[in-house]
Amino acid sequence: RRSRMMGIWRFKELLPLKTERPVTMGEGSTPLIRLEKLEKIIGVRRLYVKFEGANPTGSFKDRGMSLAITLAREVGSKAVVAASTGNTAASAAAYAARAGLKTFLLLPRGKVALGKLAQSIMHGAIIVEIEGNFDLALDTAKELAKRDEFYPLNSFNPWRLEGQKTLGFELFEDIGVPDHIFVPVGNAGNISAIWKGFKELKRWGYSDSLPKMNGIQAEGASPIASAFKAGLRAPLFTDSPETVATAIRIGKPVNWLKAWKAVTESGGTFESVTDSEILRAQRLLAREEGIAAEPAGAASVAGLIKLASQGYFNGDETVVAVVTGHGLKDPDSARFHPTMRLRAISMDDAIEKVMEVLEGRS
Ligand code: F0G
């Protein structure tokens, strides 16, 4: 009996790594969820969320990690290393545990969301806390990766992007080629990977069109979007990125050129959104559509709402927003945010109080 491949390995003919023994947990095959309420408000024909929170560790990182960890094992590495704002860390820790590899994670101290830190600890990774932001952690990871003992898992490793391009293949299976795709941008790997997926589908004769790629950054960490909007040809790197969306709190994106090409070649755009726009989009997804996004994951939706208000769409488009990480990753973003106050009723007169609230009497 021919065994059915799981996860991204369904597309193994379209992946550059041939293996019979992938390290996989069924990553990918995530739901494409139609947002019927929001699409009317925004004014497009169809609006979908590609919910990457449904991956085994709760973010899109699992797609590339499955491939990269498979390779790390095949080349005989003993240990893997990654700098991370949290999701790469959680994914690396889980997949490396499965492959029996030691994991070293370089994390910016105090700036990794609680759920991601808990995952990294749970899977037994060794954590190095860096006094400084992600960009500094990445420099350290690159240094370590020069030694033969360490296999690097950051997205300067092209195998990661090969895994992540399968998001494009799944969209194509589900709805063909959408008109627009919105992607939150941090280190700028994912938007490049999705674009690569669609370009390959066209080159190999599966499709005859391409989507417009739109990259969304947080305003306080928008080296690419701010330069793009100012008509420059290269990003404005910053040493002090700051945003509530800690996953994309990055000042010097390594893959900026690939992302820049994806956006310009496809005819899309870069946009930045404020923290309050991000949190509003997070709340809207949660309360109107039932989708829990971490703040960075909601940035794509915040971006398309902002662009829609500026007349970006003509009303006839099919639009996909990638929600890159699950809301459970960052419980503090809900617990401590003023717009998400706890609505509790005390046990005294509980029945009466519940009825009051239900009937709108209080
Ligand atoms: N959304 C989430 C939830 C992320 O964790 C990241 C990146 C991005 C978007 C941006 O993707 O870097 O490919 O442009 N997180 C990395 C990490 C940096 O370490 O987990 P990108």
UniProtKB/TrEMBL annotation:
EC identifiers of the protein: 4.2.3.1
Catalytic activity: O-phospho-L-homoserine + H2O = L-threonine + phosphate
Residue numbers of N6-(pyridoxal phosphate)lysine PTMs: K61
A single MF term (Gene Ontology): pyridoxal phosphate binding
Segments crossing the lipid bilayer: none
Family annotation (InterPro entries): Ser/Thr_Dehydratase, Ser/Thr_deHydtase_PyrdxlP-BS, Thr_synthase-like, TrpB-like_PALP, TrpB-like_PALP_sf
Organism superkingdom: Archaea
Domain Tryptophan synthase beta chain-like PALP, first and last residues per copy: 23-325
GO biological process: isoleucine biosynthetic process; L-serine catabolic process; L-threonine catabolic process; threonine biosynthetic process
Keywords per UniProt: Amino-acid biosynthesis, Lyase, Pyridoxal phosphate, Threonine biosynthesis
SUPFAM superfamilies reported for this sequence: Tryptophan synthase beta subunit-like PLP-dependent enzymes
Pathway participation: Amino-acid biosynthesis; L-threonine biosynthesis; L-threonine from L-aspartate: step 5/5
Cofactor names: pyridoxal 5'-phosphate
Pfam assignment, any one: PALP
Family listed: Belongs to the threonine synthase family.
Protein name: Threonine synthase
